Amino acid sequence: MFLKIYKMRISSILFFLLFVGLCAHAQTGNTIKLTNLFPESIGAGTNFTVDLSFDKPEIQAYAVFKQTFPKGFIVKEAQSESAEFSFEKNELNLTWLRLPQEKHFTVSYTIQVDSAVSGIFAMNGKLNYFVDNRQGTVILPSDTLTVKKAGNPTLYKDIAEKVDTAKKENNPVLVSANEHPKKDISCLRELPVSIPEKNEFEVKLKILKGDLVSTARITELIPPDFEARESDSQGAVFSFVDNKATFIWNKLPETPEITVKYTLIPKDKNNKTQPELNGQMLYISDGKVVPLIVKRNY
Length: 298
Fold this sequence. Notes:
Blueprint: H1 2-29, E1 33-37, E2 41-43, E3 47-55, E4 62-68, E5 73-79, E6 84-88, E7 91-96, E8 104-113, E9 119-123, E10 125-131, E11 134-139, E12 143-148, H2 155-168, E13 186-189, E14 193-195, E15 200-208, E16 216-221, E17 226-232, E18 237-241, E19 244-249, E20 257-266, E21 278-285, E22 288-293, E23 295-296
Parallel strand pairs: 2-12, 13-23
Antiparallel strand pairs: 1-3, 3-8, 4-7, 4-10, 5-8, 6-7, 9-12, 10-11, 13-15, 14-15, 15-20, 16-19, 16-21, 17-20, 18-19, 21-22
């Protein structure tokens, strides 16, 4: 009887040690560390790039990374490091039949946020991987992203409704600048300056506004072979969507003259062509919506 109990205890101890050994192997020897860097806040209607970094031992496991995004977020592949990339129904999937050999590598993806989105969102993710028929799971450290409203989201809906009403009443609200008493207001675009070392162009828009302090918007039509990025917005909310670079102010700065800047990046790195640009400024004065053509100052 004593020998039987002794053998059972030995078996239990051996099983426990084996179990601990397997767990230690799974939790230490094969542990993968994930780091995901999100900006603290962005403006609605903008896009940004996220880097997901892997630190791992010398294992080449089957792995799947999943991350779910709120509605209004669109994720596109940038650098997937041999993973199969997919984004469907607001879920990002990166699938590796075999993880890269490198102990440290980084994948990247771009996120476009709809101009109607705002709020604070949790950015969570999870990696499942399999080594020797055992599954490991890594939970991405929780992070939050604040999306700020793109100016007054109802402003342009209100403008459209005012214009429609005015047309029905035969009382135009949308007037030309020549018909408006504030004739000293203008928006000028300087010649885009080439920055050869970065293969970019810097664009400056100078607003001569006198004492005008109102809601305003500048929209620049960007050629389809370029992307636009904010450089200096002077308090405006900047967005780049559908080949349109937009600056929106709930209230223009009080200074009589302001200059905003944005950068144009060619999609083709070999493209050295000077971009052709067209734009319009809208502001509200005395209940009237006034359009201005952005004039070339060169």
